[in-house]
Amino acid sequence: MSVSDNMKGAALMAGSMAGFTFNDACMKALSGDVPLSQAVFLRGVVTCLMLYGLGLALRSLSFRLGYREWKLILLRSLAEMGATYCFLSALFNMPIANVTAVLQALPLTIALAAWAFMGEPLGWRRLFAILVGFVGVVLIVKPGGDGFTLWSVYALAAVGFITLRDLIVRKMSPATPSMTVALVASIAITVAFGFASLGVDWAPVTPRSGGLLTLSAAFIFMGYLFSVMVMRVGDIGFIAPFRYTGLIWALIIGLIFFGEWPDWVTLVGAGIVVATGLFTLFRERQVSQRARAKGLL
Question: Which positions ≥6 away from 218 have C-beta within 8 Å?
Fold first, then answer.
């Protein structure tokens, strides 16, 4: 029996989320053994080589871009640096499922920011869903409670940086290759954290830490590869909700490898965020379909 393009796309999206989440797990396992800047630098060297090879294989690299595009790529890379630092700082000090749950608010924050700063349409239903979703985020981070720490702020800051990053992408020309953008960002992060690592005492790379770094690079490469492939098959409106499988992976990994399980308040908050995110994606798909239908009339 043949597999539909939508099901292939769903599998690729789930695989991409698995790759990124397992990369997070490998990095978290390095906390306490290898300084953050050293770990990101070493992982970045391997990741850059893999991305460059992938770009050559797909023939999707191009550096003949105009000044405007390079400026946007630079700004996006800066936002990516901030997101990487804040996210991994939170990940090194918080349960992986909690950090991942906070990041599930991204479809909500991106939609709200695009409405507020770029004038993109946002109906009252989606706006209400976003506000409800933010209640879920509050339940996850628990401001004022014992579970709220500086690292909770870092996780929220990571959401802010990623939102900024994705808004910048919306300003880019559709002709700008996504592989070029990803490679430049990876190089920028690697160089930045390489310089930052000069100010810390490097830890010896043991077989364990070396293996985890190699696995981390392989998993993040898998995430990039599948995220590129998923754009080429199926209906993105059907595929997009499968990004939430990352939270399921985080819950499983946290329980099995780190002995972590979120409390019921965090789980309820995560459920609210996922539900409102799915509703937002559903409404976006409906609005797009109506717009296309009107254009055909």
Answer: 50
SS3 112: helix
- Decide: residue 217, CB within 10 A, 0-12 exposed, 13-18 middle, 19+ buried: buried
SS3 content of the chain, % helix, strand, coil (to 5): 80, 0, 20
- Give the pLDDT confidence of 222-275 residue by residue, as tens digits: 988 888 777 666 676 677 788 899 999 999 999 999 999 988 999 999 999 999
Query: At a CB cut-off of 8 Å and minimum separation 6, what does 55 contact?
Result: 61, 177, 179, 180, 183
With CA atoms as reference, report the closest residue to 221 among 71, 15, 74: 15
pLDDT in tens, 101-153: 999 998 889 888 988 888 888 888 888 988 999 999 999 988 766 667 899 99
CA atoms within 13 A on the CB side of 133: 27
CB 155 within 8 A of CB 285: no
Question: Residues 51, 221: contact at Cβ < 8 Å?
Answer: yes
d(CA 14, CA 113): 26
Identify whether the C-beta of residue 278 lies closer than 8 Å to the C-beta of residue 133.
no
